[in-house]
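Subject: for your reference before the review

Hello V.,

The reviewers asked for a structural picture of the protein, and I figured it would be easier to keep everything in one thread rather than splitting it across files. Below is the amino acid sequence we used in the manuscript, unchanged from the supplementary table.
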Amino acid sequence: MKSTIKVQLAVMMFMQFFIWGAWYGQMSKYMTNQLGATGAQVGSAYAAFSVAMIAAPFFVGMLADRFFQAQKVLGVLNLLGAGILFFLTQVTNPDTFYWVMLAYCLTFAPTISLTSSISMRNMSNPEKEFPAIRVFGTVAWIAVVNLVGFLGIGDKVAIFQISMVTSVLLGLMSFLLPKTPPTATGPATFGQIIGKDAFVLFKDRSFLIFFISSVLICIPLSFYYAWANPSLTDTFKVGYPTADPTTFRIENMMSLGQVSEVLFMLLLPLAYARLGVKKILIIGLVAWIIRFAFFGYGDALGGVWMLYAAILLHGVCFDFFFVSGMIYTDKKAGEKIKSQAQGLITLATYGIGMFIGSEVSGYVKDKYTAADPSGAMVTNWLNVWLVPSAIAAAALVFLLVFFRDKKANA
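And here is what came back from the structure prediction:
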């Protein structure tokens, strides 16, 4: 791969995750503080993202595989998304916010699989080359989350304005990316339009088990994205009730998770070669169980190390399951359906799994939130975090019992 292409792909990945990181982890705090949303309404807003993940990637993947150059599809989607984000910044009602967020996510969701597909399609050896490109997405997430933290705008509309401006820039830049032409030919059927081509992967038993495991682990993943920020905020308010709120910049604290992600992203090719896909997935699931327990039992005083450990485990949790899953899916897919295959695994993770998880997390948060003697609403975060920890344990047992893939582990 030419160095100029490497730079282009790295910048693309950086901007993609800069857009996402600006608002995703902070949206729950914004909706709660600025829109007065309930836990269920916050959960539904995150579920809107998952609805888009279910509806959009197959269709756009088919367009990129069969009709249009993938980088042009990416450009159009980003420009449309920027326009919708402008309207989103004007919304003050949490119910209306859901519908505008859904419209935005229908443009943003497909870009996640498209950027992965564009990257891998321009690589001679994705297993070795993709982690070095994908890591720039993690660097971007670190940069934008720290920017939000230092500016103290985690619950302000500015988080969406940052995404809007960056979307315009990436949309324009996309038309200058390496040409990534369609790989399939011939007339398209309705089945191909909805992504049926990629369903052939389900004939492979190991891929089917991996798909189901991905759905299961994304249920607890939703808890992390939706409630880690508010949970840590409440925890430090309890530990230091008289402290200036700016003393604890939760966004900066949480960015340590992405620092960890960078490290393990760079180690992933070596781990993949030495351990094989099954062992990597098992390590990732064990890490998820531990981190949720740490979020629950940690506190701002003697147990603060647990909170930091839970954040730092993000690298193992994310890279060893989700990034390795992208590589595994790419290896399983044929040349003609690579974009749709990435859309398929996106469907499992950010689609089905996180839709269920977002709705469940909102319900669980409301269930364990009640008024204290002073009338203030207080959440029992220990009970909240034990739920995703138990679900992650169930996913681990399922994978241990049913997953077999000798070829992938060779």
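For the response letter, the relevant points are probably these. The beta strands are 369-371, 377-379. The chain has one domain: 3-181+191-409.

Happy to draft the paragraph if you're swamped.

O.
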